[in-house]
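User: Show me a protein chain along with its predicted structure.
Assistant: Here is one chain, sequence first, then structure tokens.
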Amino acid sequence: MGYRELAGVDYLSALGEENRRFIVVAQDAGYSTRVPTCPEWNIGDLVFHLGRVQRWFLGMLSTNGADPKSLPKTVRPSDDGDLAAWFTSGAVEIESYLHSLSDDQPAWTFTGGDVGKWPKRRQAQEVLVHRFDAELAGGKVSLANIELCADGIDELLTVFLPRLGDKAVLSQSVHLHCTDTDGEWMLTPSTTGIEVSREHGKSAVALRASAQALLQVVWRRQSVDSALAGGAEVFGDRAALDAFLEITRF
């Protein structure tokens, strides 16, 4: 299966698994441990952030985004010892809601509305990246589903990057290529921002790496140098790649 064949059921399975892995990793790392990829946070802050995001997203979905200001304020447990139970209860609620949502059912999104598959994808990708954060704090990153990682790259490039519009200025073309699954993207400068196409092509610079390494690089959870040490390859103008990655500071 390629990443473009993922369906809502695949995202829901990933969401449940990644939620469970995240909170176990967080507890093992310790709530006071600093998170190197989110330097202002410790693990406790990371758990609260993800739990708050899931509760907010559930509120927006269940009200179709009618009145965001009316959603109840999320309060952090006064004792960090209660964070795991608090996080898990919220995870169960959004997982249950998303299970009740069909893939083609109209649904609220922060891009202006889409269908049920969209929030399933977004929530699975959200917790995956933050699981990486927790593991980096603990000192060891474990493997993730290859197709989910490739899909995460595609989401960043086709959902988040277009939101920058003409603020995303790219001077030279960039090619990203997964080496362990289907996944290639050409990024080229345009007058309205960055044009993204899912194809092979000639570019000023190309980064070839595993889907997981590419996902971590574009979400700034791993440096290019670290990816290179792990087997990734850069062909062409490294400065052009670094310039693109400066844009992906979401």
